[in-house]
Amino acid sequence: MARYIGPKSRIARRFGEPIFGADKVLSKRNFPPGQHGNDRRRKTSEYGQQLAEKQKAKYTYGVLERQFHNLFDKAAKAEGKTGEVLLQLLESRLDNVVFRLGLAPTRAAARQLVSHRHITVDGNVVNIPSYSVKPGQVVGVRERAKSLEVIDNALAGFNHSKYPWLEWDQNSKSGKYLHVPERTDIPENIKEQLIVELYSK
């Protein structure tokens, strides 16, 4: 499946945020890329702001356009605020849960762990990154993958208490998805209402 494999610093500079993680380039050049990037006089239209917010969410969670649109449709049909439900659906993706549990340093690395059959859900191997984890399910590392250096390095010093909707068990290297996260608990700087307005046009 197609994924963005271009320069991540360029995307981070476009949004002015380290959406792929810590970025030295962003701290040195905190303006958009391109010959007009440092022109502070440029104003973005309302549509431009809405589109940028959608793009930011897509890049942050590593979701393609069709997948994102399908998730929005699902969120629109669900109870609650559409924007919040959309973020909750994105947070419930297996690759994102693996990332939040500290098993991988980035969502891209988490996607790779899932695709390479290193991750289990309730004891069964699941290799679909977009799999939607349900409250009560346990996401863990496959027995033969528990000694992987990449997982040990990611877990080293990771603070598992910062995500209250997940419960970590160090002995089994697994985490329980306790409940769907509240919007206030999701740390991503995404203005979901702008995305709703974009799709409502």
**Share in β-strands:** 5-15%
Tell me the quaternary state: single chain
Strand order of the largest sheet: 2-1-3-5-4
Number of helices: 9
The counted number of beta strands is 5
CATH fold descriptor of the largest domain: Structural Genomics Hypothetical 15.5 Kd Protein In mrcA-pckA Intergenic Region, Chain A
Number of structurally distinct domains: 2
Give the C-level CATH assignment of the largest domain: Alpha Beta
Measure the end-to-end span. Answer: 29 Å
Series of secondary-structure elements, N-terminal to C-terminal:
HHHHHHHEEEHEEH
What is the global morphology?
globular
Proper CATH architecture of the largest domain: Roll
Spans where pLDDT lies below 50 across 5 or more residues: none
Protein structure class: alpha+beta
Give helix % range.
40-55%
Determine the CATH superfamily of the largest domain: RNA-binding S4 domain
The radius of gyration is: 18 Å
Mean pLDDT: 86
- Major β-sheet annotation: 5 strands, antiparallel
Protein name: Small ribosomal subunit protein uS4
Region (Disordered): 26-48
GO cellular component, one term: small ribosomal subunit
Pfam family, one: Ribosomal_S4
Explain how this protein is built.
Residues 26-48 are annotated as: Disordered. The structure is a single chain. The protein is α+β, with helices and mostly antiparallel strands. It has two domains: 8-84 and 189-200, Ribosomal protein S4/S9, N-terminal domain (Ribosomal Protein S4 Delta 41, Chain A, domain 1), CATH 1.10.1050.10; 90-183, Structural Genomics Hypothetical 15.5 Kd Protein In mrcA-pckA Intergenic Region, Chain A, CATH 3.10.290. It is built from nine helices and five strands. It has helices spanning 8-15, 24-28, 46-61, 65-77, 82-91, 94-100, 107-115, 149-155, 192-199; strands at residues 119-121, 124-125, 138-141, 166-169, 174-177. Strand 1 (119-121) and strand 2 form a beta hairpin. The chain is globular, with a radius of gyration of 18 Å. The model has no long low-confidence stretch (mean pLDDT 86).
